[in-house]
Design goal:
single chain, 143 residues, 7 strands, globular
């Protein structure tokens, strides 16, 4: 089951998956507490096992579009490979108004996962300090 959660609720997955070994405070991302930001949790047996955050955020490549940024997408390691991440992404895609663009900074290790969902890379690979190499990816439903 997928439902809305608070930004703090995302930390139980963000911390071990996206910020292992770092202070819990690093799980708070810019934009987490904006009124237009939404956080979603994938629940199994009452436990959050996957999370994703979506915020209304423009991008230089799409300055006049209805843009949303996907952030903090993560699934606990023992549940990865079970289509939970894909279900979260598809759920968010349906929740957002159309036409739209969804973009995000993807870890290189997750690039193939997002490509299978129809997202495309754009631009050069860049380094997020302390995290690793990333690439901007996007999908557009605009005509």
């Amino acid at each position: 089951m997928i439902r809305k959660i608070s930004s703090q609720d995302t930390y139980v997955v963000r911390h071990p998956v996206l910020r292992p070994g770092k202070p819990i405070e690093t799980c708070r991302f810019d934009g987490d507490d904006l009124p237009t930001t939404q956080h979603f949790g994938f629940f199994e047996n009452g436990k959050i096992i996957g999370v994703a955050t979506i915020l209304h955020s423009s991008h230089d490549n799409w300055p006049n579009e209805n843009c949303f940024q996907l952030r903090g997408m993560a699934v606990l390691p023992e549940f990865q490979g079970k289509k939970i991440g894909a279900q979260l992404v598809h759920f968010i895609e349906k929740e957002l108004p159309s036409p739209k663009v969804i973009w995000f900074n993807a870890r290189i290790s997750a690039r193939v996962f997002y490509e299978k969902l129809g997202y495309k890379p754009i631009g050069d690979i860049f380094e997020v300090v302390g995290i690793g190499p990333h690439v901007v990816m996007f999908r557009s439903w605009n005509s």
